[in-house]
Amino acid sequence: MRQVKYALSCTVAAAVIAAAAMPAWAAEAAKNYPSKPVRIIIMSSPASGPDILGRLIGVKLGEIWKQQFVVDNRAGASGNIGAEIAANSAPDGYTLLMVTSQAAIVTAMFDKLSYNLVKDFTPISYLATTPFIMVVNPSVPAASVKDLVALAKGKPGELKYGSGGSGSPPHLAAEVFKSMSGTDLLHVPYKSVSPALTDTISGQIQMTISVVPMVMPTVKSGKVRALGVTSQQRTPLAPEIPAIAEFVPGFEAIGWYGLVAPAKTPPEIVAKLNAELVKLMGSTEFRERLSTMGATPTGTSAQEFGKHIVSEIDKARRIIKTAGVKPD
Questions:
Q1: What CATH number has the domain bearing residue 188?
Q2: Which of 49, 143, 299, 318 is deepest in the core (most CB within 10 A)?
Q3: Helix (H) or strand (E) holding 316
Q4: pLDDT tens digits for 255-266?
Q5: Is the overall model pTM greater than 0.85, yes or no?
Q6: Nearest partner of 91 among 32, 17, 24, 29, judged by Cα
Q7: Residues whose CB is less than 8 angstroms from the CB of residue 181 and which lie 6 or more positions away in sequence, other chains included
Q8: Domain that residue 286 falls in
Q9: Confidence band of 20 (pLDDT split at 50, 70, 90)
């Protein structure tokens, strides 16, 4: 812990030094930011939670600054494709990256990545948190998590669950569920959660865990059956769906969203973005908009978000080791 605090202190100190050393042209560019369209890279497919939040933020920031914020979906490889593109982009504030809990999990799970989540990015703000929902195809003879556990124990390795790829939050949530419930489920990784949900609906696989906004329409239409939410408590958006923890005590898997920029992005630009994002997350309008997607806005300083990222990587490492999660 002392080393983490020291590293974070060094990061903050480096930012201060960089700000002091910033040339006049860079300070002027930050003052006039944004003077051209800004790209927000999303490491998942359209209609996913990060995509929805990225578009909402883009629209609002565009209205505030009279400049276009363009969402660029770069799904695949557990988010590594989008992260690598962002890490190699110019640190001028015109390329931003929506990071989620998946980024921390991937960092903890894979030994060799083409980028470093802590060193190659500058935190801007922690934006929101959200639970996931476990759903099954209606043909699966399980009306509850308890039923699913009994069914899985009777058919070890036969029930298949899909995820948005190895290292995605739903993947880790399912693996923790397997470990805590003593079940054996077969993981089927997809490039994103959308095809995993599609195959759950068609019956190609039996189960998936997905974000609230993507899965709720299919639950309401009867295309899938919701068994439980991954938060410790039931979500106000669907209070009729029990928490998985009601059947598997202690179970919890929460997703989160945040915004970062390439390392060495001018501190003035980071501060400018952070100030507007914190205002947005604290507004009644945005809270109501996010509640429809099952998310709770946070909005923090860049420093707080940086600490959160480090903490989440350490947490993911502990869970991966305990649950014995392996990349597919």
A1: 3.40.190.10
A2: 49
A3: helix 302-323
A4: 999 999 999 999
A5: no
A6: 29
A7: 149, 152, 248
A8: 2-130+255-323
A9: very low
